[in-house]
C-alpha cells in the first residue's frame, strides 16, 4: 500500500467518527492509534496548548499511546521543555536529530522503556493549527534510531496533522453547537416553567359563566386556597389557569398535578420531592411540585383521589408552609398558593371517611362551582364554533358550516361529558363529514347525523337523574343498548358485545377519562383499561373510532 493510501485508510474512520457520539478522550485516543498505523512509533501523544493564570504557556496531554498512564495527569511548562517550544516555533512538522542534546519531556515515561534519560532515539512532532492559532501538538517517539529517516515520515506527519487539526476544529464546533442547543433547551424549559401563563380563553356568555367569571376575578387577587368543583370536563383546569393568570403570581410558575394519575407510593415523592436513595428507584435528587411552584400556584387536580396519609401531610404543609423531601431531615419553606379541583362530592367523601374533614375545610376556603354545559344557555354553540374553527385550521380546511339541524341537536343534547365531550364530538363530526363527497370549493357542512348524538338524552332534567350525576351512565341509545340476542351469536360474543357497549357508553359519558368512567362502572382504572384494550376500544383522550 502506498503511503498516501495508508494515510487515507487511517483518516477516513476518524472523519466518520466526528459525527458519532464518542466522548472526546476516546476520539483523541483513536486519532493517535490511527497516527501510529501511518507512522509506526513506540509512543505518540496529543497535547493541548493552554495558558496559565500567570500568563505562562503549558501543554496538557489529551491522549497518549505508548506512554505511561500517569502522563495524562501531567502538565508541561513550555519554557522548561525546549523540544516542545521548538515544535511550536517551527509551525510545521519537525524532526529532531537522534543525538539532539535537548532533554526529552518523555524521559522515564515511555511505556516500554523505564529508564531516564531516554537513550538515543528518533523524535518528531507537529503543531496543530486551528483558526490560525497553535491549538496543540502531536508528538511521535521511536526508540529505534532512523525510524523516521527520510522526507516521507515528515510529509506524512504534516498531512496527518493538518487533517487532525480539521477534525479537532470540527469536533469543537460540534460541541459548541451541542452546547448552544442544550442552553437553548434549558432556556426554553425555564421559560415554559416560569413564563406567565397566557390568560386562557374561558368562553361563554351565559349568565352562569358570567357569574363564574366575576367569582374568578374576585378571588384571584387573594392568596386564598380555592376548591373548584364541577362535573367532569366542565373546564375546571381552565378555571384554575384563569385564577392564576389573574393573580399577583401570574408571572410565576403554574404547576399542576393530577392526583388520580399516580400510584399512592409516588404521590408524595411527586409533591414533596426526594433525595437519592430515599426509596428503590430514587436514583437522583428530585424537586417536587411544591418546590417547582414556589411563589406560584400549585393545582391539585382530582384532589379527592389523594390517599388519606398524603392528605394529612399536605395539610401540615398548608399550615406551616414547610416541606420535606422524602429521605431528607431538613425542611424548606415554600410559598405556594393551592388551587384544587374535584368532580366528586367531597362533603360525602368526608362522611364516608375517604377524605379528612380538616383537609377538606382547609381546601375549600373559597369554593367555586363550574356549571355543567347544559346549564349554560347558548354557550354550547359558542364553544362548538370555537372547536370547529380549531379543527378546521388543524385539518387545513377552507370553511366548515354547522347546519341548522346540527345546531338544534347540539342545543338539545345534555352533555354529560360537558365541554370535553363537545370537543370530541365536534372533531369526530368533522372527520365524519369529510367522508362525504363534496365539490372541492364548497365549505364542509356538518349535519346532525355527523354529531352522532343520542336525541333522547335531553329527556330527563330532574336533579339526581342519571344525567345529572356524572358518576352514572347517560341515558342509553335504544339501538346501542339493546342487549344482543345470544341466540344469534352465542353467549360469549353477546356478552362481549354488551360489555363493549357499556364501556363505550361510560367512556363517552365521562369525556373519555379513565378514572370517572372506571368509578361509574365500579371497576378500578387499571382493570377498565385492560378491559377496554381487550374489547378493542380506543384510548381516552383520542377521538373514538367512527361509527
Ligand atoms: N369555557 C371554556 N372555553 C374554552 N374551552 C373550554 C372551556 N371549558 C372547557 N374547555 C376545554 O374543554 C376541555 C376540558 O376542560 P378541563 O380539562 O379544564 O376540564 P376539567 O373540568 O378539569 O375535567 P376533569 O374533571 O375531567 O379533570 C379542555 O380542552 C378545555 O380547554
TrEMBL record:
Please give the Gene Ontology molecular function terms for this protein: ATP binding; DNA binding
Residues annotated as transmembrane: none
Chain residue ranges for the region called Disordered = 456-487
For bias type Low complexity, the affected ranges are 478-487
Tell me the CDD domains matching this sequence: AAA
Name the PANTHER family for this protein. Answer: ANAEROBIC NITRIC OXIDE REDUCTASE TRANSCRIPTION REGULATOR NORR (PTHR32071:SF35), TRANSCRIPTIONAL REGULATORY PROTEIN (PTHR32071)
> Can you say what this protein is called?
Nitric oxide reductase transcriptional regulator NorR
List the PROSITE patterns.
Answer: SIGMA54_INTERACT_1, SIGMA54_INTERACT_3, SIGMA54_INTERACT_4
Q: GO annotations under biological process?
A: regulation of DNA-templated transcription
Which UniProt keywords are listed?
A: ATP-binding, DNA-binding, Nucleotide-binding, Transcription, Transcription regulation
The record's listing under InterPro entries reads: AAA+_ATPase, AAA_lid_NorR, GAF, GAF-like_dom_sf, Homeodomain-like_sf, P-loop_NTPase, Sigma_54_int, Sigma_54_int_dom_ATP-bd_1
A Pfam family reported for this protein in Swiss-Prot or TrEMBL: Sigma54_activat
Stored NCBIfam families: PRK05022.1
